[in-house]
Write a structure and sequence with these properties.
Largest interface: A-B, 83 and 81 residues
CATH architecture of the largest domain in chain A: 3-Layer(bba) Sandwich
CATH class of the largest domain in chain A: Alpha Beta
Number of helices of chain A: 12
CATH topology of the largest domain in chain A: FAD/NAD(P)-binding domain
Strand content of chain A: 25-35%
Radius of gyration of chain A: 22 Å
Oligomer: homodimer
Helix content of chain A: 25-40%
Strand order of the largest sheet of chain A: 5-2-1-9-21-20
């Protein structure tokens, strides 16, 4: 009898964790992703703010899995699932093809949601892939260049205003990083403009920043951001984003040439592929073993899945995806080995962290609410440790030590595509 | 009286060197470049072959010059020169404007030349900017991904053939780097294809590789490349490049999906801006002080200039640009200070190097022809030492040590622009 074939779609935290759980299984594992790398998304904001290179937080999936001989990595895009025939439709550069599976794990993450306002997209890029981070980096650095080249000082305020739409972790971390950059790294690099006059505006419809954290931590972060010079506008619903800025909060306009979308995400279309029940956000409802009801061979994990625990849906964070991936992989592994299924999935919350500029972070666990410099050190260690490959750990660690000591940023690089010779 | 204004166009080796020579001058120095960074082009092939990140060989011009308070950096594109009015026309994102100058230094480098065959361009990208290197990196890595995803093994040879058109230093260095990568880094990363079956083909019309080097070194490199498995086709004139490969050498087709242009370059259009005498290649003829005949206030340096010494034109290499930039800057500095002009420009040749894979390089000076491992160590030290900023030196050095010891590459990253979520 041929070995069973397990297809895992998505090389993020969930998919990779599922693949690793199956490393000793007598099965043919196929990991499919659109990109050739596993991206460490929690540090993506550091790429967007010129601290790190994309290469420092992205590990080739093939490198991560090269010793795992039962696993093949395929770069392709999934276009649908034929649940009845147990068959996945994929497209690569050349053609469409179909792959049959015995077990399927879908861990396809999220994409931005402009909440029905797709017209905002060109004026407010989000932060999800390496290419997104480079685009945001280009825009931020370019704004300073345009201001420096602009001889009419009346235009400077608009060019030097950055608006972050959404005060969740990404918005808060971006706001802190930009506010810090203009007061340290860029301080003496311009002649016509003073980067310290930059406005960083963080807006959200919610009544407080970091709504998923406890109120005391949220208040501490609010205070810290204001101390760094970030303007925070809460209860601010965005009505319009265009080339001239943001309009919201009942008709106020914030003139700005650089708006960054740090708000909503929506799950990738796994629910549509499966034609299955989803919540309003589009997440697929799964059973206690993370499989699709009625389809024990299909697992949905990570940001794509709706898993409720103690009456609340689990949040869309890396840890949840990691633990779910491990669980789904274990269910499949035990089934192949003819062993009984493991106990139903249960998420163990190791705590949540967020970082606000240099030397300050917060942590919240079931028992601990802390903020400050020591938490920031823990944050840095945890994040370095969790990078997928040893060389990235060394590289990011050294880059951070250097940035910390020098107040410089390693990658202040505007790369315009379709560039030509210098001049 | 206002300070004289010196405009330098181009932040490459020549322009930066000219700006630095003027650092103590009582003048207003404006450095204009299309990009925000100085790119260390001799290592660009390492970005294209996944060893280094663009950020490791690119230093922000503002960082390099941030202590030089008499100098303003402007990100803009030059569109013309009004020689009679001493006025430079520039365009930035928003508008066109004009800048008057007292002295002008043009160091605007080169762009590719497909020798009249611009139709080759989409099928054979070249290597000049950071964006180019990322494009070439994407294509090389993508070729392996396509082959791995291709179930018809008949297609594999074409996908796994890389053709380098032009056996100068860039072609030789790229060929060596690709040949090495397939035999080490990628060795165990694929399941359907064997990267060691990759063909690397280096073609040139010339009768030998590295024509600008002496014959003995050229022969040594030829032997070394063949030992690494590179196919070399000399006297091979290219007639056609299309999506299926290269045709040349009297009708032979080399089927390949990845062709890289490592052949000709042409100077940027400084000759047209100035409406001045150029050689057939488009380089501007300058006098012994590097100024334009009849215009002592305009200097042309680097790859854009034709400077003859001992009856031969100086080559388009970094050292020539550096020394010319220093000379032009010195002429201007002394003129501003009311001092006599320096002696006519004379290039001091410190030797040329080229590297072929790991642990092998050649050097040629007036007295020395050497090749081998020790030369490679010297090559590595010289190149690390010449990076513009200290942090890049540390970063590249550590990356090389790690790559050398592990046979891995740090940045095997396909970044597709307009990417979305994983899947």
């Amino acid at each position: 009898m041929a070995e069973p074939r397990v297809i895992i779609v998505g090389g993020g935290f969930g998919g990779l964790s599922a693949a690793k759980a199956l490393r000793h299984s007598p099965a043919q594992i196929i990991l499919i992703d659109r990109t050739n790398h596993h991206l460490f998304q929690p540090l993506l904001y550091q790429v967007a703010t010129s601290v790190l290179s994309p290469g420092q937080i992205a590990a080739p999936l093939r490198s991560i899995l090269h010793k795992q001989k039962n696993t093949t990595v395929i770069l392709a895009e999934v276009t649908g699932v034929d649940v009845a025939r147990k068959c996945l439709r994929v497209r690569d550069a050349d053609h469409e093809s179909a792959l049959t599976y015995d077990d399927l794990v879908l861990s396809v993450g999220t994409s931005f949601s402009y909440f029905g306002h797709d017209a905002f997209a060109p004026f407010a890029p989000g932060l999800k892939t390496a290419a997104d981070a480079l685009e945001v980096r280009n825009r931020i650095l370019h704004a300073f260049e345009l201001a420096e080249a602009e001889e009419n000082p009346g235009q400077h305020p608009e060019l030097l205003t950055f608006v972050l739409v959404g005060a969740g972790p990404t918005g808060v971390e971006m706001a802190g990083a930009i506010a810090e950059m203009v007061r340290t790294t860029l301080k003496s690099d311009f002649r016509r403009i003073d980067p310290a006059t930059t406005r960083v505006v963080l807006v959200d419809m919610a009544p407080r920043v970091l709504q998923t954290f406890a109120e005391d931590l949220s208040a501490a972060v609010h205070k810290r951001l204001e101390k760094m010079g970030v303007e925070i506008r809460l209860g601010f619903g965005v009505d319009q984003i265009d080339a001239d800025g943001v309009v919201g909060g009942g008709g106020q306009r914030i003139p700005s040439r650089t708006v960054i979308w740090t708000a909503g995400v929506k799950p990738s279309p796994a629910g549509q592929w499966l034609n299955s029940a989803t919540d309003r956000a589009g997440r697929v409802r799964v059973g206690p073993d993370l499989s699709l009801p009625g389809h024990p061979e299909i697992f949905v994990i990570g940001d794509t899945a709706l898993v409720e625990q103690d009456g609340k849906p689990l949040p869309g964070v890396a840890q949840v995806a990691l633990q779910e991936g491990h669980h789904a992989g274990t269910v499949i592994r035990r089934r192949i080995a003819g062993q009984p299924a493991p106990a139903p999935f249960r998420y163990h919350d190791l705590g949540n962290m967020a970082v606000v500029g240099k030397g300050y972070a917060i942590i919240e666990t079931a028992h601990i609410h802390r903020s400050g410099f020591l938490v920031w050190l823990v944050w840095a260690l945890v994040h370095v440790r969790n990078l997928a490959l040893a060389n990235l750990r060394v590289s990011v660690f050294l880059q951070w030590v250097w940035s910390y000591l020098s107040d410089q940023r390693g990658v202040r690089l505007i790369v315009e595509h379709k560039g030509g010779a210098d001049g």
